Task: structure prediction
Amino acid sequence: MKDGIEQPTRLVNIRNISGLHGIRETEQGLTIGPLTTLAEISDHPLIQSQYQILADACGHAATPHIRNMATVGGNLLQRVQCWYYRSSDFQCIRKGKDLCFAFDGLNQYHAIMEYATCPSVAPSSAAVALLGLNASVELSSAKRGKRTVGIRELYVVPDANPTKFTVIEPDELLTAIVIPKPAPGTRSAYQKYGEKESFDWAIADAGVVLEMDGDVCRRAVITMGAASPVVRRSPQAEAALAGKPITQETARAAGKVAVEGAQPLSGNAYKLDLFPVAVYRTILLAAGQRDRDPSAAG
Ligand SMILES: Cc1cc2nc3c(=O)[nH]c(=O)nc-3n(C[C@H](O)[C@H](O)[C@H](O)COP(=O)(O)OP(=O)(O)OC[C@H]3O[C@@H](n4cnc5c(N)ncnc54)[C@H](O)[C@@H]3O)c2cc1C
Result:
């Protein structure tokens, strides 16, 4: 609205619906109300101890002031930050026109993978963590009832429909985030890299969930945010770790293959170097072999 892209005729305040707020431990895992703030999530002792990736992601998004106000539901549903989309001076493909200005224009913050129609990148740090945790969201409509959608399926790929960002219908609210209990031996982490240390969205971010059997990684989930229009997993990086011990070598190999097949635009080839480092360092952080990177943002 502030960018002049949407001019709704009616606004509904959902902030005072108490049933949509709070963090609840269940037998299956966690249920988080969409009105829970990013600060409440990152400060929560259970999330800090068992869902570290989510505490990291919510604790390093935006700024302390914003995290105290921003809801996790709003964070998941925020629209892309592409400066052409965000400017009312540009009528781009995501506003129903037929042109993308980023392909031939300024594209240093844009996608390096899985773009064809629009190379804007997934903006939500929380989504990178929640995809790693195999979370889903509950969507509720007064007329049609509730449905459950996985985090990846929540987002519409612009190639499928450039003007739709999520599968939420106009009569639906996001009413819960459901996170399964991590398997025994799970360790996780998230790190975000920015152009500056704080106050900005990621130019590269990585989420890592490692299910460990002693020193050996039984299963890994590697997620990436600012690489593609929709938050993604890297099957190549995951395969590079599965069944192996976590060492500098295996972590570096996983980071390297995370950008396999990437096709940078004119201004963002630096991401081909940045993402492997983000993935490598976040794997070692998750494995407890490295402290949080002082050059990470947030
Ligand atoms: C300077 C700056 C830096 C930032 N850096 C980051 C960053 O690094 N990482 C990151 O992830 N984010 C970042 N953000 C984004 C920020 O975290 C989001 O703007 C914030 O989380 C939005 O939360 P909100 O509660 O204000 O949502 P709103 O802005 O109120 O909502 C966003 C959208 O979701 C809809 N919505 C909200 N809740 C529901 C619901 N329950 N059901 C259906 N629809 C709903 C709203 O109608 C709206 O369309 C940054 C923002 C700023 C200003």
